[in-house]
Amino acid sequence: MLQTPRGGVGHGTAAEDGGSMSIGTVLNALRDEFPEVTISKIRFLESEGLIEPQRTPSGYRKFSVQDVERLGHVLRMQRDHYLPLKVIREHLDAMERGEATPLPTVGRQRDGEAVLVEASEAPTVARIGRSELLAAAGIGEPELEEWESYGLVVPLEDGVYDAEAATVAALVSELGRFGIEPRHLRVMKAAADREAGLVDQVVAPLKRHRNPQTRAHAQARTKELAGLTVRLHAALVQTALGVRLP
Questions:
Q1: Nearest Cα to 134, choosing from 143, 146, 124?
Q2: How many CB atoms neighbour CB 98 within 10 A?
Q3: Which residues 6+ apart lie within 8 Å of 50 measured at CB?
Q4: Domains of the chain by range and CATH?
Q5: Taking 50 as the threshold, does the pLDDT of residue 14 lie above it?
Q6: 75: Cβ–Cβ under 8 A, 6 or more apart, which residues?
Q7: Residue 156 needs a FRET pair 20 to 30 A away by CA distance; which of 26, 82, 126, 184 works?
Q8: Phi, psi of 18, rounded to the nearest 5 degrees
Q9: pLDDT tens, residue by residue, 76-111
Q10: How far apart, in whole angstroms, are the C-alpha atoms of residue 35 and residue 149?
Q11: Max CA-CA distance within the chain?
Q12: Whole-number mean pLDDT of the chain?
């Protein structure tokens, strides 16, 4: 059985209609462990075949406890192991068939593409290839080049991308459906850079510390502060708009 997200489905929420949950309830159940998760992210994972929630006659999604457990597992594998969605889907499907499959990792790069190796062979590297990013976001080269020109998606030195670039690309694409163009998002990128700079300023003394344990603690502190800044940013936007997200 897949691991339930920390806090569980019932943490602060209750399962609806005999175990079925709305997408807003699912979001609340996941946010304790994954503060950056959004409804758009859940919908994107559904479109990629990672989950298949049932639909009501009127078209609303209804998630089961198993759907939420699988979502938590997907998000955890993205966060902790930086695996591509296709690999995560294949791994989870194999687990559900009862097959004992080792957890792959993203390792060496070959021709700009991620090469999968067994977890015991090499440490995890948070990188994906360009074609994989295009496939994950469902876009073509012209769109990606435009996003890169505005600094929304930035390749690493060897031409591949941080795994989180797939999430950024999916959200930029989703916003585009509402007529929000990449040039409109420069203000968000600038705000994110300032927030990241503030976090880095706070943890910089820990990173420079001579004690290895203290330097290791800097990574955990960075994640904690990043989660808090994301939640604060979301709350400020909601306050400015006078709306409450589910």
A1: 143
A2: 6
A3: 70, 71, 74, 85, 88, 89, 92
A4: 1-81 (1.10.1660.10), 104-180 (1.10.1660), 185-241 (no CATH)
A5: no
A6: 5, 30, 33, 34, 37
A7: 184
A8: 70, 30
A9: 887 777 677 777 888 888 877 777 566 654 443 444
A10: 28
A11: 61
A12: 77
Return the ∠ at Cα 10 (arms to 26 and 18), rounded to 5°. Answer: 80
Measured between its terminal Cα atoms, the distance across the chain in Å is 28
Instruction: Look at the block and give the residue holding tokens 């344990």.
Output: 213
| Nearest CA-CA partner of 69 in 35, 36, 40, 92 | 92
- CA–CA distance, 39 with 246 (Å, rounded to integer): 9
Handedness of CA 97, 102, 106, 108 (dihedral sign): negative
Closest CA to 15 of 88, 66, 64: 64
Residue among 158, 187, 155 nearest 169 (CA): 155
pLDDT tens for residues 140-188? 899 999 999 999 998 887 788 887 888 888 888 888 888 999 899 989 8
pTM above 0.70, yes or no: no
Place of tokens 């977890």: 119
- pLDDT tens string 50-72: 899 998 888 888 999 999 999 99
Q: Are 20 and 65 in contact (CB under 8 A)?
A: no
Residues 62, 54 contacting (CB under 8 angstroms): yes
